[in-house]
Write a structure and sequence with these properties.
This protein is α/β, with parallel strands linked by helices. It folds into 2 domains: 210 residues, P-loop containing nucleotide triphosphate hydrolases (Rossmann fold, 3-Layer(aba) Sandwich), CATH 3.40.50; 111 residues, P-loop containing nucleotide triphosphate hydrolases (Rossmann fold, 3-Layer(aba) Sandwich). 33% of the residues lie in helices and 24% in strands. The strands form 2 sheets. An 8-stranded mixed β-sheet has the order 6-7-8-3-9-10-12-11, sandwiched between helices. A 4-stranded antiparallel β-sheet has the order 2-1-4-5. Helix 4 runs parallel beside helix 7, helix 5 packs across helix 6 and helix 5 crosses helix 7. The chain starts with a strand and ends in a 6-residue tail after the last strand.
Length: 344
């Protein structure tokens, strides 16, 4: 982990016990967030983006959950918060051991959630408390930041998030159901930012908004992150969304980080991207429909049934793609792909 990084996630594996047995959800994910930068996490629905973020927050509502990995958080304490994880080899695990570890992890992460790491969820209206006025929800964030219930501070945060003075006073007294989609999104930003957390996670922040509001929201969010010098993790299914305000991008497919590099390099069409990234470059809206469905339990590359390169190589090479997890191949110091075709 770099000394300038606030979060470093490596070798993440996740799974769930089902009626049919153990199922792998994440086979290998990673993410590093340097201070005062914005990192993107992109992939279609079911790629593992939200699960990766849930693991960072310690919000894992199933067993066994995390089955391997390291999560380093670098604030006052430089610690691997998964240092005591009961990692297992194979698919067997002790239910009680994992249950008690998740309880310890949840308690350990409380000092980070809200105070250090805050999240903007999908669909702004549903992420706001329907029983509290907007001002009361900002008060809760202010108290988390060590401030009191300050009406003027609540109005100030609403104004910072794009409301005019008179509108901010009106919105402060309203409940979430009384707001339009755009108003709700800005209110969520005010609630999130007023906690003064160092890291903001935005999970598909424009879901449910029309095209015009999506662009306005993204531009405005970028301005706010720069103004308050926050680090951010932006989750999206749309590469063009991430182009607007991320420095580095991680591409996920079926529980595997298949590429990581500068966002400018990820967006540049051509042969220096993973085959899946090249497909994403041509898509505006992704709904889990790029090619055949393959689960994360596949031992090799999960993208092989849809890969144009796979279809052109020898049967022996195809067997390797199906049966062996591709290694990370470095294209530059800060750019890698997981694909045998890039090996020299």
């Amino acid at each position: 982990m770099s000394s300038s990084s606030l979060i470093s996630l490596t070798n993440l594996r996740m799974g769930i016990e089902t009626e049919r047995g153990f199922k792998t959800l994440i086979k290998h994910s990673e993410l590093e967030l340097p201070a005062k930068t914005a990192v993107g996490l992109v992939g279609e629905s079911g790629s593992g983006k939200t699960l990766t973020i849930s693991s960072i927050l310690g919000l894992i509502p199933f067993l066994p959950g995390v089955t391997n990995g390291e999560l380093w958080i670098n604030f006052k304490d430089h610690e691997n918060v998964w240092h005591d994880g009961p990692w297992i080899s194979g698919n067997g695990y002790d239910h009680h051991e994992y249950f008690t570890w998740q309880k310890r992890l949840n308690s350990r992460m409380k000092k980070y959630r809200g105070r250090t790491i805050s999240i903007i969820f999908q669909r702004a209206k549903s992420s706001l408390n329907p029983f509290l006025k907007i001002k009361d929800q900002i008060y809760e964030s202010l108290q988390m930041a060590g401030e009191g219930k300050d009406y003027l501070r609540a109005i100030e945060w609403l104004t910072d998030c794009g409301f005019k003075a008179g509108e901010a006073q009106r919105v402060a007294e309203q409940y979430p159901h009384q707001l339009s989609g755009g108003q709700a999104q800005r209110a969520v930003m005010a609630v999130t930012l007023s906690s003064q957390a160092e890291i903001i996670i935005a999970d598909e922040p424009t879901t449910g908004l029309d095209a015009k509001l999506q662009v306005e929201t993204l531009v405005f969010m970028k301005r706010l992150l720069d103004k308050f010098q926050k680090s951010a993790i932006i989750i999206s299914h749309n590469l063009q969304t991430l182009a607007k305000f991320t420095d580095t991008c991680y591409v996920m497919y079926k529980g595997l980080t298949v590429e990581k590099g500068p966002t400018s390099a990820i967006l540049q069409r051509g042969g220096r991207n993973h085959p899946y990234t090249q497909k994403l470059q041509g898509e505006v809206e992704i709904a889990g429909n790029i090619g055949q469905i393959v689960t994360a339990d596949t031992p090799g590359c999960p993208y092989f049934p849809n890969c144009d390169i796979y279809k052109k190589i020898s049967p022996e090479a195809q067997t390797r793609c199906r049966d062996i997890l591709p290694p990370k191949v470095m294209l530059d110091n800060d750019h890698f792909v997981r694909c045998f075709a890039f090996e020299r």
